[in-house]
């Protein structure tokens, strides 16, 4: 459990000064001297060496450096404390304080997070523009933070760098028409399945353990995942094409229980926010490297890479079924879809 902290701010250091005050590698003597030490418990359920684990562990390392060891995170990666749903529930009761996970598991606790189910909404933007929206101060993030607060949580930030879920298939997918009748394995997510139906494919939820053999024996034609996941599953052995459909953003969120956040001294809050910002800056280039290296591994293993012009995404987004899905998701998330689209367009000017 996390320790109690000083109730009142003892320093005159104003919010934002931590980020502006020299090198924090060896801590900042004096800034935190009057505060009681605090230990938070953090966790993820990602695979060993995955971006989520590296992200969370770097946040823990940086916040300790910044505070000279006064604020620490006892970090448990790789599902040591449970799966995503278990971790989020424990965070809501403040049994653990901080969780890193992808956006999809959050939907069961924060319905507004279904905004990330909008198909291809990020597909034409680079990582910097997406980051400016997701980690910036704007109407979209303000509304999303309110949704986190309503669930007893406090949003700290998003890690992404314009890498996406892709489609592997045993047939060429060069045009929209090529997706007609495609038997594709998806997660059991209604919004995802409705997207594939809207473009003519036939989505089939399937347990992960069954995917490889089903692709191998032709029970299904295709599946969709991030490139590094495809490498980990050796899909280059059973799939011929790697299509950069970029339909869902590969994105990790990091949040803290609202109870823990409110208990932290303002200096510790600022230190934690700075640690998250530093970790995002450190990890974003690595995400791009992992994605590019994974695609190269799949191609070297015999797959053919298919990439699309923006006109391909425009054609799909103009489909009536996709427009209806956007409208439906916007209703699910209380208008956040329109706010997200508006902010993306504004940052693309």
Q: State the distance separating the first and last CA atoms.
A: 46 Å
Number of domains: 2
Total beta strands: 11
Largest β sheet strand count, sense and barrel closure? 6 strands, mixed
CATH topology of the largest domain: D-Maltodextrin-Binding Protein, domain 2
Overall morphology:
globular
**SSE-based structural type:** alpha/beta
Biggest sheet, spatial arrangement of strands: 7-6-8-5-9-11
What's the CATH first level of the largest domain? Alpha Beta
Beta-strand fraction estimate: 15-25%
Low-pLDDT stretches are: 1-16, 19-25
Please give the share of residues in helix.
Answer: 40-55%
Number of helices: 13
Radius of gyration: 21 Å
> Helices and strands, in N-to-C order?
HEHEHEHHEEEHEHEHEEHHEHHH
Q: What is the average per-residue confidence, as pLDDT, rounded to a whole number?
A: 91
Q: Can you identify the CATH superfamily of the largest domain?
A: Bacterial extracellular solute-binding protein, family 7
What's the CATH architecture name of the largest domain?
A: 3-Layer(aba) Sandwich
């Amino acid at each position: 459990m996390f320790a109690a902290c000083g109730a009142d701010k003892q320093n005159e250091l104003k919010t934002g000064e931590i980020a502006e005050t020299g090198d924090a590698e060896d801590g900042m003597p004096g800034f935190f001297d009057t505060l009681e030490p605090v230990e938070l418990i953090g966790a993820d359920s990602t695979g060993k060496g995955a971006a989520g684990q590296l992200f969370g562990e770097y946040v823990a390392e940086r916040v300790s450096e910044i505070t000279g060891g006064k604020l620490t995170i006892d970090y448990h990666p790789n599902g040591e404390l449970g799966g995503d749903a278990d971790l989020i529930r424990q965070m809501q009761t403040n049994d653990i304080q901080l969780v890193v996970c992808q956006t999809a598991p959050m939907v069961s606790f924060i319905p507004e997070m279904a905004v990330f189910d909008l198909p291809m909404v990020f597909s034409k933007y680079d990582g910097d523009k997406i980051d400016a929206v997701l980690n910036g101060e704007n109407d979209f993030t303000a509304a999303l933070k309110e949704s986190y607060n309503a669930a007893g949580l406090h949003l700290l930030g998003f890690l992404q760098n314009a890498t996406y879920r892709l489609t592997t298939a045993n047939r060429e997918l060069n045009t929209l028409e090529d997706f007609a009748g495609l038997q594709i394995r998806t997660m059991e997510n209604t919004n995802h399945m409705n997207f594939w139906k809207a473009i003519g494919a036939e989505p089939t939820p399937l347990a992960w353990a069954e995917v490889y053999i089903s692709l191998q024996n032709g029970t299904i034609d295709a599946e969709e995942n991030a490139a590094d996941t495809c490498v980990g599953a050796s899909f280059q052995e059973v799939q011929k094409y790697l299509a950069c459909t970029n339909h869902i953003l590969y994105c990790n969120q990091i949040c803290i229980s609202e109870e823990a956040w409110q208990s932290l001294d303002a200096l510790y809050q600022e230190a934690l926010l700075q640690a998250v910002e530093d970790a995002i800056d450190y990890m974003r280039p690595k995400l791009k490297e992992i994605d590019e290296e994974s695609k190269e591994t799949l191609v070297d293993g015999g797959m053919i890479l298919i990439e699309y012009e923006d006109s391909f995404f425009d054609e799909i987004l103009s489909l009536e079924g996709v427009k209806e899905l956007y409208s439906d998701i916007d209703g699910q998330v209380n208008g956040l879809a329109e706010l997200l689209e508006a902010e993306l367009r504004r940052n693309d000017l």
